[in-house]
Model the fold of this input.
Amino acid sequence: VAAIIDQTNRSGHRRQGAAYARLADSLRQAIVDGRLPQAARMPSERELTEAIGLSRTTVTRAYTDLRQQGYLLTRRGSGSVVRVPAVPGGRVDHLLSPSSPDGGDVIDLTCTAQGAPGQLSDAYARALDDLGGYLPGTGYYPGGLPVLRQRIAARFTRRGLATEPDQVIVTAGALAGLATACAALVRRGDAVLVESPTYPNAIATLKGSGARIVAHPIDHLTSDWDLAGLTTALGRGGVRAAYLIPDFHNPTGALMSAAQRSDLARLLRAAGTTPIVDESLADLALDATPMPAPLGSLLPTALTIGSASKTLWGGLRIGWLRASRDRLDDLATSRLRLDLGAPVIEQLATAHLLESYDEIIAERRRHLLEGRDVLLAGLAKHLPDWRVRTPHGGMALWCALPRQGSTLLAQAARRHGVALASGPNFAPTGGLDGWIRLPYALPKGQLAQVPERLAAAWADVLSGRLRPSRGGRHRIIA
Ligand SMILES: Cc1ncc(COP(=O)(O)O)c(C=O)c1O
Done:
């Protein structure tokens, strides 16, 4: 906690006012940012006094303030724990489904995905040509079509994670891969570590499988993964699995460094925690940043999830799960409980698209880079006090608002023709109403209009005239 307070102070957070008010403010900020997650145990007043060198009275007053405002719950004899207050008007179930923009000129930023590449029709035409060869068979391929498994395995091997085709199970997208992994691995009540923020539907899938979520905060503006914090979280033991997005994390865009990967691999190994690595965005580097080796190559026990949705097209509904041989039987069984395989024609089309993968990706990257830069330039002009770090890859900006209000902003933006997913959607254990995700996958002509519209919406929020809307859910799929 002392380190978190120090970090908040260094990040330029409020420096005026009485010492107790500044301390309360730093702790409040850490709670709403998810760095002190729901139910985290706080140090006693005496312990905190010793750790941060302020007077006992200062700490007592700060705790009293936080208790009165609903950020701390104190039970006599058992200390204080963090409470993340509910966001007004923000009902968040982490189950995001296609948004239905109201038509007109609504710019839909609830989804990080692009339209189909030019090569898609040709890939389907070739898939249809191939189909004849499959018609005499039953059409059931629970592990996936051999030709596709082979191409996916070859890509893993090329990236440094040696893989044979039988180690790949083709699924209906990355989320279905996660559901398959959960069904094989997670029992009701098992602790599963996730990053905070993280991809919303993964939170829902994990919770749906009975996982008890342990949130590990990512510091979005500075250092990304906090290995010291992870050491503590994993060191307590009993964490069954860790769902991680080390490659252009959704929503922050963070890329885990090679050094952090090897430290993390050591921690996970020592803790006996199985990593579920989501590589959905791994091929979307936007600049010359060298890509570290896949996290799975450092951890033989890792389950690695991938997807065609972000790189090729979401409409294919094709993803995959890669695992070590000793896990394959369990995964195959759990897959058969969920479904019996992905459609043959889509698998064939994906196999053909993988033949032109490098060309398609180069075009994807060019488009995303353009979108990212248009959005960053517009934000700098129209919303200069929003803080954002330029991501080296992925599909979205993760912006720190100057104050809480992401849920209200999503509401206000709708009236200015922008559909947004508010920060709390990405918070596994509450908070994050001071953040907003802005995908940059749409064409630059549309993205260029976003900052001005958001500036008008943010002015509405700051005006204080907005009332939280009841039942107004903000939904995202990707
Ligand atoms: C990290 C991550 N995992 C999974 C998904 C879902 O992918 P799919 O469409 O393959 O199920 C997304 C979509 O945005 C994502 O960002």
Q: What stands out?
A: The two ends are 33 Å apart (CA to CA).
